[in-house]
Specification:
This protein is an alpha/beta fold. It contains twelve helices and eight strands. The N and C termini lie far apart (98 Å).
């Protein structure tokens, strides 16, 4: 009978061969065969230093998928340690903004006269100027059969702006505005038809072209913001991370901070769970998207599904002071030139863009909380507020260009 071939691992067999240790070198005392060859170890070192912000779990998953191998996180850490790659926090900059240093230069707010619009006769400060109304009037024009509207479209839009800027209830609209029932009904029709979003999309393309960008962006930034809800009712949840009971606003913007998609859910929905429908909606609206940026709350296998199914590669931008992750660097060289402040905020690449957009949103008093029963109406308020901001920005830039 022919001798059967041994298929299971035999330590004596490898001990007779001399054994192979870490990095493809043979150990005199024997041992298991190496998981990675010397070329793969060199590739692992290069890949890790090229992506220093990845956590150990993300690095293990991405490298195994990229190299076609199977490793555990502890084994990969051992290979990196043998290759001279360690992980630590970025250094603290002594005079960084927000570090509390006495030599810190005061920050200028740059609050100019353009922010002090006193309005004119017959127009409140929140209302649209003639130049701003000219930018959006075509999209709010009455079309179709029926009797002409008793109140002008501009007065109706200004009344909606009054509510979102002041945060007052519908019933407390000033007497010189159209009746609140009429304004509310028209707002609901505009919101259901997506009029505010369509107007904003037109203004966004115009502003991007003014900035020398293509009308359709290729990169997006995603983030979520949890806000409380009033006792008005409607769906709500609890965000255990932010300790907020209410709803969560998931936003996708371009790299200028301009809105692409607004998705309002209950606060109990995790960021990573809403990432795929959020990016899918952004990809449907802007097919040119190929790149994205997010914070650590979106890390996980969901980003791989977004890349495979939607063709958008989401990069996680981590804080340099993250004590759970840190940054990978060569142990023989000083730490990379990514510094963090001792206290206060640290401006992170791309992530600060959408954080600024969130601050623009809560600048309107109606949006500091969610006062609506319906989530689609809540998203309509966000589009309305940002539509006015962008229209005012474009009108001011046009005026400056004509003055020059």
């Amino acid at each position: 009978m022919a001798e059967t071939r041994r298929t299971r691992y035999d330590p004596h067999h490898y001990r007779q061969l001399g054994g192979i240790g870490m990095g493809g070198k043979r150990k005199p005392g024997g041992g298991r065969p190496p998981k990675l060859s010397e070329a793969q170890v060199a590739h692992l070192r290069e890949y890790t230093l090229a992506h220093p912000e990845l956590s150990l779990g993300d690095l293990t998953r991405k490298f195994c998928e990229h190299a076609g191998v199977s490793l555990s996180a502890s084994t990969l850490r051992s290979y990196l340690k043998a290759a001279g790659v360690t992980r630590s926090l970025a250094p603290v900059q002594e005079n960084a903004p927000g570090s509390g240093s006495k030599s810190e230069t005061p920050v200028t707010v740059n609050y100019t006269e353009q922010h002090r619009d006193a309005g004119d006769e017959g127009r409140y400060p929140h209302g649209l100027t003639d130049a701003e109304w000219a930018l959006v009037s075509d999209l709010f024009r009455q079309v179709g059969p029926g009797r002409p509207s008793k109140h002008s479209r501009r007065a109706m839009v200004d009344a909606c702006f009054y509510v979102v800027r002041t945060g007052c209830p519908w019933r407390m609209l000033p007497r010189d505005m159209p009746p609140w029932q009429t304004v509310y009904s028209q707002f609901r029709r505009w919101s259901a038809a997506g009029a505010f979003e369509q107007t904003y999309d037109v203004l966004r393309a115009r502003w991007r072209e003014r900035e020398g960008r293509a009308a359709s962006p290729t990169a997006t930034v995603i983030d979520a913001q949890s806000v409380k809800t009033s006792p008005q009712g409607g769906p709500k949840g609890y965000d255990a991370g932010k300790k907020v009971k209410g709803r969560k606003r998931h936003l996708a913007t371009d790299t200028l901070g301009l809105l692409l998609v607004v998705l309002v859910t209950v606060a109990s929905v995790q960021d990573r769970d809403a990432a795929e429908p959020l990016v899918a909606a952004a990809k449907e609206k802007v097919p040119t998207l190929v790149k994205g940026f997010a914070d650590g709350g979106y890390a996980g296998r969901g980003l791989d599904r977004i890349r495979d199914n939607l063709g958008v590669d989401i990069e996680v931008v981590r804080h340099p002071g993250n004590r759970n992750v840190g940054r990978w660097h060569d142990a023989q060289l000083p730490l990379p030139l990514v510094e963090r402040s001792g206290s206060g905020i640290t401006v992170l690449p791309r992530r600060w863009v959408i954080e600024r957009t969130n601050s623009w949103t809560v600048g309107c008093r109606r949006l500091t909380m969610d006062h609506d029963r319906r989530v689609d109406v809540a998203s309509g308020w966000i589009w309305l507020a940002h539509m006015q901001m962008l229209a005012r920005r474009i009108a001011y830039a046009d005026a400056q260009a004509h003055a020059a």
